[in-house]
């Protein structure tokens, strides 16, 4: 008798989020800690285990210098701020995933993109699974996005979607959203892991086969990540995050992954009643220009992607009758804010232990990078001592626990933006590198030097 196989085939289980395999089913993946993502894998059939025979290739391999690149040139979307993030436009056959919170303006932006695409002479197909065609038409009327080459279809079936593509033969396909589409060849409800993976795989194959750029709208989870299996982000070519505060008109499109361009670029938009428009010079949204200084304000330069933006930090220090004074933060990192306050009190001799401290940014901007530490410290000290900074001064620098001011990357590029907007003086750390010639730089090696500048120059006007 042949020896008995002691290693019987056991079912394997794989996490749909990270791909980690386990021997038995568990409710939570031990690798990525995702709940309910572990699924059973079917045992491989005999044909799957067999050796794959060599077949004739569809096209022969060629030297890389002989490959035609004209067919892969990016075409502009007609929205310059979006083109900036995409790296010049949409590449034929590219699949773009645009994710964002509900109501942030994803559908409005993509309706504008399809309208601009249709204006360029190529048909665009907008497939919505979340709204009716009439609802999309009403939004198009409100944003003046009506065009004969812009086609709308309200479908949630993948087969019907592919039928619309065959009928219209568009130059751009937008699917809003991928979580609402359902494939008849996959199990599960729409939005589930299996369905999302099957629909995305089919649309990626469609894009590559026909050279059709496809934009997919994706939902996000409570923590801001893309909903659905993690493999979704690996299947597509470009992943963009659409961010914005509901209480502000500012919207940011941030590149997370891009196979055709930079992955750290940011596009700025303003959401209005009549649609969404790009903001090529957004620094004005984050500044309050004044002829004289006001206590509790300081201006810094932050970098979003590769774009330098001026941001205004405001602070208010008021006496507190509470045993534990309040520390309120809006638009800034609360942990860094607590560190800056501790350094100010210990190294700068600014009394804050019995006062409420409120800090915020202007225009709903979120500032998290350490380059804004010096401006935050000066804003708080200015409010505590009632000494206004001159209105023509910007401050950049990271503040250390010992009170030193450390240099930051791209100081020259940051300060060139400040000069362009009319600022003539800057507080900078030592060894900041080449700076614009039209700017008078004041080197502050520590927080004490910055506070002395505040004391000696408080209330100066720009022409002094």
Automatic annotation (TrEMBL):
GO terms for cellular component: cytosol. A motif (RadA KNRFG motif) lies at residues 257-261. ATP binds at residues 100-107. The lineage of its organism: Bacteria, Bacillati, Actinomycetota, Actinomycetes, Pseudonocardiales. The gene is radA. Residues 71-220 form the RecA family profile domain. The keyword DNA-binding applies. This is DNA repair protein RadA. It holds the Pfam family Lon_C. Keywords: ATP-binding, DNA damage, DNA repair, DNA-binding, Hydrolase, Metal-binding, Nucleotide-binding, Stress response, Zinc, Zinc-finger.
């Amino acid at each position: 008798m042949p020896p008995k196989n002691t290693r019987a085939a056991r079912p394997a289980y794989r996490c749909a989020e990270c791909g980690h395999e386990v021997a038995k089913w568990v409710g939570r993946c031990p690798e990525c800690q995702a709940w309910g993502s572990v699924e059973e894998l079917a045992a491989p059939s005999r044909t799957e285990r067999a050796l794959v025979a060599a077949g004739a290739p569809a096209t022969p391999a060629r030297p890389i210098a002989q490959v035609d690149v004209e067919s892969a040139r990016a075409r502009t979307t007609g929205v310059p701020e979006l083109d900036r993030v995409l790296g010049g436009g949409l590449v034929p056959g590219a699949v773009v995933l645009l994710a964002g919170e509900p109501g942030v303006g994803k559908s409005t932006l993509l309706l504008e993109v399809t309208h601009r695409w249709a204006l360029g002479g190529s048909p665009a197909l907008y497939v919505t699974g979340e709204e009716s065609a009439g609802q999309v038409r009403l939004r198009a009327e409100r944003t003046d996005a009506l065009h004969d080459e812009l086609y709308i279809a309200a479908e949630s079936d993948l087969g019907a979607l592919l039928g619309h593509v065959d009928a219209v033969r568009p130059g751009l396909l937008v699917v809003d959203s991928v979580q609402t589409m359902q494939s008849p060849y996959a199990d599960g409800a729409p939005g589930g892991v299996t369905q999302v993976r099957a629909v995305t795989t089919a649309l990626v194959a469609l894009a590559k086969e026909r050279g059709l750029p496809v934009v997919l709208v994706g939902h996000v989870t409570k923590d801001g990540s893309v909903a659905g299996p993690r493999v979704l982000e690996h299947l597509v070519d470009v992943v963009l995050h659409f961010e914005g505060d509901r209480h502000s008109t500012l919207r940011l499109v941030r590149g997370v992954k891009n196979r055709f361009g930079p992955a750290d670029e940011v596009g700025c938009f303003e959401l209005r009643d009549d649609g969404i428009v790009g903001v090529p010079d957004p620094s004005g949204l984050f500044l309050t220009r004044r002829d004289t200084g006001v206590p509790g304000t300081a201006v810094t330069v932050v970098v979003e992607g590769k774009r330098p933006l001026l941001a205004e930090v405001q602070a208010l220090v008021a006496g507190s009758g509470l045993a534990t004074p309040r520390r309120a933060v809006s638009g800034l990192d609360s942990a860094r804010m607590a560190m800056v306050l501790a350094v100010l009190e210990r190294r700068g001799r600014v009394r804050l232990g019995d006062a409420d401290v409120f800090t915020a940014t202007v225009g709903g901007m979120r500032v998290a990078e350490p380059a804004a530490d010096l401006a935050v410290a000066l804003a708080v000290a200015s409010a505590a001592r009632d000494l206004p900074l001159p209105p023509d001064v910007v401050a950049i620098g990271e503040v250390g626990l010992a009170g030193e001011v450390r240099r930051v990357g791209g100081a020259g590029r940051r300060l060139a933006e400040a000069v362009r907007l009319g600022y003539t003086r800057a507080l900078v750390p030592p060894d900041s590198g080449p700076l614009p010639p039209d700017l008078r730089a004041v080197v502050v090696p520590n927080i004490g030097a910055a506070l002395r500048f505040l004391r000696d120059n408080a209330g100066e006007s720009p022409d002094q």
